[in-house]
Write a structure and sequence with these properties.
By secondary structure, this protein is an alpha+beta fold. It is 44% helix and 17% strand. The strands form 2 sheets. It has a 5-stranded mixed beta sheet, sandwiched between helices. The protein has a 5-stranded mixed beta sheet with strand order 6-10-7-9-8, with helices on both faces. Helix 10 packs across helix 11 and helix 11 packs across helix 15.
Length: 419
């Protein structure tokens, strides 16, 4: 449990993070964590279907939830004098969820439709999903958070209930509260609400580790689409490796906003792409991907965009960034981090994610000091070490006739998504 007093406004964010996500699922049961997230709003022994959301709304609050590879999290935003409601509602559904069979069947259909609309019928998201399944052959990051459709068809109410009983336990959760309160007073209330809930028996699970990739992998997807699309992922270490800070700076140099190298070079100067960018995933339990993407302009081939992306990577491997550019990017990272802490909600998100994946609050405290120490030599070294063909997977969308929808965002959706 982490309590952060922030008394500048009479509001509070309550978040509870469970250490369970797609990473804890096996083939045949994928999508279980996300489906259970939906069921958490369908009633307990104390509060009937829909009552959770009605109580929150009646008291002027907002609530939602989200599922990722490594976690499932729930939150409420309230006026600070309503925080007791979060304590009562969340402690209740941690132990007393019903999972009515009829409601389960209905919600499973909702999730299946969500999969159809967000992935199966979206060629760009479909390509990203396929690329991850190609880059990870053994590790459960191979599987989509929403699950494979065949698994969604087969998952039962009992599967969801056993998943709930196994993972939704006080000793498998992190409570983060940020806002206007007195810590000693709130601590006593949290203790009273949760201390009598029995801890579960947590068995350390063996998650298969992804073997080293020893050659480029390349896949092609044919889908109805207006334009082609290219998505490239490199295996890179996560927060546990000291190179993570140099990788974060490198990612910002290449793909942070419209002043980044990729956007400037591919969109503005060469006019090869409508969009170009990427991201580096560091706060994950196991190493994930450093990825790049590009949407060619009409008449431009994916080969031309891929060549331009590779040229920018090569440039970082052979030429050191200037101190001026390095300083600019560090300032951008610091500003983004500090602006993020200005919001109670975003601050709680940072803390909850860091605690859940194992980085801890200390990682956040020392993050900026490590970023400030990154050198041009380190950036060149990590580019040479990790952005190499043997660790690369490439996905290319080949448009088929019949589409009239524009490209969608390529970023992973870990945002609140209860529906």
């Amino acid at each position: 449990m982490i309590l952060v007093e922030e008394n500048k406004a009479p509001v509070v964010t309550f978040q509870i993070w469970y250490k369970v996500g797609a990473r804890n699922e096996v083939i045949g049961k994928t999508g279980l964590s996300h489906l259970l997230e939906h069921m958490m709003f369908k009633g307990t022994t104390l509060h009937g279907k829909g009552e959770f959301s009605r109580i929150v709304a009646k008291n002027g609050g907002t609530e939602n939830a989200f599922t990722g590879n490594d976690y499932t999290a729930y939150f409420e935003n309230f006026s600070s004098d309503r925080i007791d409601l979060s304590l009562e509602l969340e402690s209740d559904r941690m132990q007393n969820l019903l999972i009515d069979p009829t409601e389960f069947g209905l919600e499973r259909e909702v999730v299946k439709e969500e999969r159809r609309s967000r992935t199966d019928d979206d060629p760009y998201s479909f390509l990203v999903e396929t690329l991850h399944a190609t880059a990870f052959m053994v590790h459960p990051y191979h599987n989509p958070v929403i699950g494979w459709m065949d698994d969604l068809n087969a998952i039962t109410r009992d599967d969801a209930y056993q998943h709930y009983k196994k993972y939704y336990q006080p000793n498998n959760a992190t409570l983060v509260i940020v806002g206007d309160f007195q810590s000693d007073v709130l601590l006593a209330k949290v203790t009273a609400a949760f201390e009598n809930l029995p801890n579960g028996t947590l068995v350390k699970e063996r998650v298969p580790q992804e073997p080293p990739q020893i050659g480029e992998r390349r896949i092609f997807v044919k889908k109805e689409a207006q334009l082609p699309f290219i998505f490239i992922g490199f295996h890179t270490p996560n927060f546990m490796h000291p190179d993570t800070y140099a990788l974060a700076v490198l990612a910002s140099i290449l793909s942070s906003g419209k002043s980044s190298r990729l956007y400037q070079e591919l969109v503005y100067k060469q006019q090869l792409a409508l969009d170009a960018g990427g991201s580096y995933e560091d706060l994950t339990i196991d190493p994930d991907l450093f990825y790049f993407y590009g949407t060619p302009r009409p008449g431009i081939t994916t080969e031309a965009v891929e060549a331009a992306l590779n040229a920018e990577i090569k440039r970082l491997q052979t030429e050191k960034v200037t101190e001026t550019e390095l300083t600019k990017v560090k300032n951008q990272l610091e500003a983004a981090y500090l602006f993020g802490t200005d919001s109670n909600f975003n601050r709680a998100m940072q803390i909850g994610r860091a605690e859940t994946v194992g980085a801890g609050y200390d990682y956040l405290v020392s993050y900026l000091s490590h970023i400030r120490q990154v050198t041009a030599d380190q950036i060149q070294k990590v580019a040479q070490t990790y952005l190499i063909n043997d660790q690369k997977s490439v996905g290319i969308l080949i448009p088929q006739p019949g589409a009239d929808a524009p490209p969608q965002s390529t970023a992973k959706d870990d945002s609140p998504n209860k529906e």
